[in-house]
Structures are given as structure tokens and as C-alpha cells.
Specification:
Layout lengths: L10 H9 L6 H10 L10 H4 L2 E2 L7 E12 L2 E8 L5 E8 L5 H14 L10 E6 L3 E7 L6 H8 L4 H20 L2 E2 L8 E3 L8 E3 L6 E2 L21 H5 L5 H16 L9 H10 L6 H4 L4 H8 L12 H5 L2 H4 L16 E2 L1 H15 L7 H17 L1 E2 L3
Parallel strand pairs: 1-5, 11-12
Antiparallel strand pairs: 2-3, 3-4, 4-6, 5-6, 7-10, 8-9
Helix pairs in contact: 6-8
Length: about 375
């Protein structure tokens, strides 16, 4: 190489030279890092360890690239079928050689946390396949798309459906917090329906930002920005927070379900952050005059600046809005016992019909049909009484 072709060594080149010293080349360094095992099985239960395989995923699963479920930092999430059983899963693949140190740490944390969870409202990590180049996560297949998609179909949720949806979300978050896990990225896109059914189960997904936190070992809380800007709690923006950050994000999510809008608006990130820090939001009559006082109070007690005064997941489950959910809630069909419908429920359903009928957009038809089908079925089997 001629002298003129030799580039001066800049900061990046010098750093790479230091990092790769002893490996011979940058390629050899990346190859060495890729071969390092990501999973820390020693911390897993014996049951979880039985779901880890140190071999190429192609040996046991066939991926269908035409069935794309979504996209993320790892690329496309596709459907994969287990060759021996025919079981379908959602496959996420990561190339270890191109992930940064922080990305590798997030992936390791996601695996360690997700493999330890077992709850009906949390997506299950079924198998982990790791070879020299890739880590492959095979997740429980959820075919009903995410909460953002369903909200986009209807613009807003009728209150009784929003209430049931919130209940399912609270069950998942309460479980995580009792396990010492903070999700840190609660948002519409991370809630998946397990099927396209009207009665599908809602499941929390994507544990990339999740952290374990023990207040006794670390009383100062967590640090570092995590999550999505419109859902971010004020203390996360400030830089020191606890599991209560998830409850703020859940409050934003519930506000979205009932109004179709974020509570904190702004043309820029700084404007949104400013309103979050001031807790500057309201309930405009045009969108909220049909929503109950209990629902608004529920949101007010989640969107609280002081985390110590914010409801926990366990406290939220005891809120009057949640207590109105009976054990034989008709929205989930959990009981075959006759359902008792109050006059107030019937008036609420009628007002919801009128509200939807005044909206010209045809995409509201699916929720109208679902509500009509549910109400008709319930009315045929239930006695209407005054409560």
C-alpha cells in the first residue's frame, strides 16, 4: 500500500485497535464475542433450563418468512413450526456478532426475566436456541395482533371493554411487581391478544427494557431512561424511579383506551416532557362526558406526580372501578351462572350505541356488531334487575 493510501489513525480506529488487541483482527474479535454464550442458565430453574438448547434452531423448527408478525430491533418476527409436533411459535432471531454491548446486555436481561415468568397475561418464552452466531427466542404465538391495532379499529373502547382490558393488564403488572420485575415499557404495542376472538386473552410482551429491582438492596431505585416518550413517567425523565413508573404508563394506556388520545400533547419531545413533568392534562367534555366518574378517578390516581402517592398495581385492583367487575363478568364469560344486568348498565349500553351511531366512519362497525352480539346474548340469558 502506498503511503498516500494509509489513512491517519483517528479516535475510532485507535479504540478498535485497543479493543481487538490480542485477537489479531476486528473480525476475529467479533467472532469471539459471537461465540460467547448469552444465556445464564445457572440462574434458571430446572424447568427453564429444559427449554434451552445450544444448537441451531433450524434443526428443530422451520421458519415461514412469509408469515411476518411484526418487526423489531432484531428484524422481522415470523411464525416457526416445530418439526416434531407441528406447534407454531413466534420466532425472534438476534445476530450476536452485530449487537452492541448494551444490546447484548438487554437481550440477556430479556431472556433471564422472560424465562422466569409464568402468568396467563404474559407472553411465555417457550424455547431458547443459541449457536455461535445467533440467539433465537421462540415465543408463545399470539395471533390477535396488539392493543394498538384494536384501538385503531374502533378509535375508543366502550367503557365496559376498557375496564375489562385494564383488569387483565393489572393482573400482569401486579404479578411482575410481586416478582421484583419492573417492565419499564408499558404501552399499547406491547400488549398482544392471543387470538382474534372478541374474548381473547391480553398478554404483556417485550421484556427488553425490563429490570429486576429489590428496594431493600437498592433503596435509591432504578436509573437510566427507558420506555417510550408519551408513556414515560416524570421520575423516569428525572432519572430515579421505582416500579411505580409502570403504573404511570398504565394510566396513560387507560386514558388512550377511553379517549383515543394521549393525555400529554406536544409538537416536540421537549413539549411532551414538559407537560408530563407538570402533570398537565385534563378530561375534555367532548370525549369524556360519557365516561364514568370512577374511570376518571382511576386515571387520576395513576397519573400522580409523586410516585409514593400513586396507586400500586395491587391497590389499583381494589379501586371501585375495578371492583365493579364481578366474578361472572360477561365480557370474559368466566361463569355459566345467570348474569344480573342493572338498569344503569342498560342505559350505559344504549348511550354507547347512540354515541357510535353518530360517528360516520365505517370502521366503527366491528365494535357495534360485537357490542350488539354480546348484549343480545346476555339479555336472552339474564334477568334485568335494579341493583
Amino acid at each position: 500500500m502506498a503511503a498516500a493510501d494509509v489513512l491517519p489513525m483517528g479516535p475510532l480506529s485507535r479504540a478498535l485497535d485497543v479493543v481487538t488487541k490480542g485477537f489479531g483482527s476486528a473480525e476475529a474479535f467479533l467472532d469471539k464475542r459471537a461465540r460467547r454464550c448469552i444465556a445464564t442458565k445457572s440462574k434458571w430453574s430446572s424447568e427453564a433450563q429444559s427449554r434451552y438448547f445450544r444448537k441451531p434452531v433450524e434443526e428443530d423448527f422451520e421458519a415461514d418468512g412469509s408469515r411476518v408478525l411484526g418487526t423489531g430491533c432484531s428484524g422481522s418476527v415470523v411464525v416457526a413450526t416445530q418439526r416434531s409436533t407441528g406447534q407454531e411459535c413466534a420466532l425472534k432471531s438476534y445476530n450476536k456478532g452485530v449487537l452492541s454491548k448494551s444490546q447484548l446486555a438487554m437481550l440477556k436481561s430479556e431472556i433471564d426475566i422472560n424465562v422466569s415468568t409464568d402468568h396467563a397475561n404474559i407472553t411465555r418464552l417457550l424455547y431458547v436456541y443459541e449457536d455461535d452466531e445467533t440467539v433465537n427466542l421462540l415465543m408463545e404465538l399470539c395471533t390477535g395482533k396488539d392493543l394498538l391495532h384494536r384501538l385503531g379499529q374502533t378509535r375508543v373502547f366502550p367503557e365496559h371493554i376498557a375496564k375489562e382490558t385494564t383488569h387483565q393488564m393489572l393482573l400482569a403488572v401486579d404479578y411482575l411487581h410481586k416478582q421484583g420485575i419492573v417492565h419499564r415499557d408499558i404501552k399499547l404495542e406491547n400488549w398482544l391478544y392471543d387470538s382474534v376472538s372478541d374474548y381473547a386473552t391480553l398478554k404483556l410482551s417485550d421484556f427488553g427494557f425490563s429490570k429486576r429491582w429489590d428496594p431493600e438492596e437498592d433503596p435509591w431505585g432504578l436509573s437510566g431512561a427507558a420506555g417510550s416518550d408519551p408513556y414515560m413517567a416524570p421520575e423516569v425523565i428525572s432519572g430515579c424511579y421505582t416500579e411505580k413508573c409502570d403504573m404511570w404508563s398504565l394510566g396513560v394506556t387507560v386514558y388512550l383506551l377511553l379517549s383515543g388520545e394521549f393525555p400529554f400533547h406536544g409538537a416536540t419531545k421537549s413539549q411532551i416532557s414538559g407537560k408530563i413533568m407538570a402533570c398537565d392534562y385534563n378530561f375534555p367534555n367532548a370525549k369524556w362526558n360519557h365516561v364514568s366518574g370512577h374511570a376518571k378517578d382511576f386515571i387520576r390516581k395513576l397519573l400522580v406526580l409523586n410516585p409514593s402517592k400513586r396507586m400500586s398495581a395491587a391497590e389499583s385492583l381494589q379501586h371501585p372501578w375495578m371492583q365493579q367487575l364481578s366474578d361472572d363478568s360477561w365480557t370474559r364469560q368466566l361463569s355459566a351462572e345467570p348474569l344480573m344486568l342493572s338498569d344503569s348498565f342498560c342505559r350505559q349500553t344504549t348511550s354507547e350505541y347512540k354515541a357510535f351511531m353518530t360517528q360516520p366512519k365505517s370502521k366503527n362497525l366491528p365494535v357495534l356488531l360485537r357490542t350488539a352480539r354480546r348484549t343480545r346474548s346476555a339479555a336472552q340469558d339474564c334477568q334485568v334487575v335494579k341493583l
